[in-house]
Amino acid sequence: MAVAIVICFDWIIINGFMMMPKRLDRETFLFLFLLSSLTIMLSMIYSAGELYFSPTYRDFPMQDAVAFHMNRNITFPMLTLVALNLWKSGQLWEKLLSCLGSYVIFLLFCRIDPVHTTFKPIGISGLTTYFSCYYLFVLVALSLFTKGNKKRSIQQRSSQ
User: Fold this and answer.
1) What is the pLDDT of residues 52-92, one digit of tens each?
2) Containing structural domain, residue 62
3) What's the mean per-residue pLDDT of the chain?
4) What is the pTM of this model?
5) How far apart are CA 62 and CA 45, in angstroms?
6) How many structural domains are present in the chain?
7) For helices 2-19 and 76-87, what crossing angle results, to 10°?
8) Cα dihedral sign for 64, 66, 72, 76?
9) Are the C-beta atoms of residues 63 and 3 closer than 8 Å to each other?
10) 14, 51, 67, 130: which could join 6 in a potential S-S bond, CB 3.0 to 4.6 Å?
């Protein structure tokens, strides 16, 4: 049942992302998707240490393990892309609304279903701190990546 819920939720997120106007280019989306997926996987490995490194992993049902990995590799990075796409809209209220909305969705999703998101329940203060640092990191990466793209495009135009 967990896999079906995660697939349905992912389908809604991906369709919403496909329908919204894109304010970033394909390279930037790919970079941010891979960066956010790696960041979530590596930074939350401590909370999922039992899942990866103990014999209880063999007792963990396969559907729960699939739902856990889909959340970390599809759901959370896609929610991040939706928020960052809305972040680039330019108006302050849309930026704040997109960040606050995705932030609340992340927190609710982790609190409602900790087995398929963090494996072990983490307190709300820990999740708040984690997602605040995560968003700041991804926003800094977005600004650095877009600055690098602007410099590269200027160099290409000047060399022609």
Assistant:
1) 666 655 666 777 777 878 888 898 899 999 888 888 877 88
2) 2-159
3) 81
4) 0.80
5) 19
6) 1
7) 20
8) negative
9) yes
10) 67
Q: Is residue 50 a contact partner of residue 56, using CB atoms and an 8 Å limit?
A: yes
The token pair at 125 is 């203060």
Q: Are 102 and 79 within 8 A, CB to CB?
A: yes
Enumerate residues 6+ apart whose C-beta is below 8 A from 100. Answer: none
Residue 11 burial (C-beta neighbours within 10 Å; 0-12, 13-18, 19+): exposed
Report CA 15 to chain centroid distance, whole Å.
16
Which structure tokens are listed for 117?
């998101």
Non-local CB neighbours of 42 within 8 Å, separated by 6+ positions: none
Cα 116 from Cα 70, distance rounded (Å): 9
Report d(CA 109, CA 69) in Å as an integer: 14
- Return the ∠ at Cα 63 (arms to 57 and 65), rounded to 5°: 40
